[in-house]
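Need tokens for this chain, all 487 residues.
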Amino acid sequence: MSQEIRNLEPKALWNKFADLNAVPRPSKKEERVIAFMLEFGKKLGLETIKDEVGNIIIKKPATAGMENRKTIVLQSHLDMVHQKNNDTVFDFDKQGIDMYIDADWVRAKGTTLGADNGIGVATIMAILEATDIEHPAIEALFTIDEETGMTGALGLKGGLLEGQILLNLDTEEDDEIDIGCAGGVDVTATAEYDEEDTPTNSIGYQITVKGLSGGHSGMDIHKGLGNANKIMNRLLFNGFDDFGLQISEIKGGSLRNAIPRESVAQVIISEMYDEVFEFEMSQIIQEIKDEFHTTEPNLEVVLERLENAPKKVMPSMAQFFFVRSMYTAHNGVYRMSADFDDLVETSNNIAKVTLGAGKLVVQCLTRSSVETSKLDCANSLRAAFELMGCEVEFSGSYPGWTPNPNSEILEVVKAIYEKQNQAKPNVVACHAGLECGILGTNYPEMDMISFGPTIRGAHSPQERVSITSVAKYWKLVLEILKNIPNK
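Here are the structure tokens for all 487 residues:
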């Protein structure tokens, strides 16, 4: 871990971020970071609670003179998305994140950084540890498993918190205050098929789509980025229609909330098409690269002949329906909001495709700030995949967060931001899935906003956080703590 990170200002925050990033903390494997937070709270002599699902709550009394202010909940999630480049050797289960400074950015070497939501966690830790920061009574809420189902927020029971105001520190533009977000649902299509023997006189190829930007499937879904699964299907569709290509296996994408950057397929064709196949595919590959030259300048599609053709393939009729269902299935923006300018209302990310050994699984994450529109998009996917004979399951549904433009804490934060920056903040709803909507189901009277420093490339190895933005954000947080309204 670079000592340079610990010397950044504000040191209290960056040191806690460095401590946190030394602890492996993948979603659904948070045992080590839960133990880390329990020890942290107990060493400070503060009331520290682990609830039945693994969320950590640390309570700190108000500083002198602030006892009459409303109790606040400072909230961030402990888990992080684990993504790495193919050529990066790294074990997320055992290693801490290797960080470095690049001009105004803190980055990680070949992996996700964990600024989402580690900067928020580190902020709260620094406040809990401080002896010179004015604040009202604090309930620090560290949730688990935000990135793969929000099960921590979903499992938090009513009655554990007494706070009247919640500050969620999990957004990624330092000039924005979020007052609403999208809900989501996982849409998973599965099917089984009887493999058949590869025909004689067949040639095997491996097709690799790589070099895509990836990114957050909510915050980046409108940017026109390439989806490796959709690009791969385009290649397979053309190869099948023109040359009778048959698929042996596909491995595309990884996480439901990350736009897939890579996909690898093994396929076969008849040897009679060998030369013309490579020529035609090179033409299609160039067309795709030309289409994406602005948003995906590093896109690569590699066609490699295999020494030995795969022994088993998907039958032609099953493949006929598969590639057409994949073409039909919606990916990207489904509908823009009619109520907020430039806000994506509904979207879908075809996140992961695995095919082989007689089994097919396609995993999608559908998001929307309108519950009925979320179901409409999910049903469009269901229809596409059921037409090929898949079973389709909806799971992990979570609600959106309905904006409250009359929020008391919103007015406080807007005034502070404007005074500090001589500019008005952008009050927005976002297309990401924040935990506020879920937390509000058991704490409906809690006044909530979300804000944070500028983070780019979350959920990808390009993730980075702005150093100057963190300083700006820290200054805002400290002033908000001084100005929490009276009870």
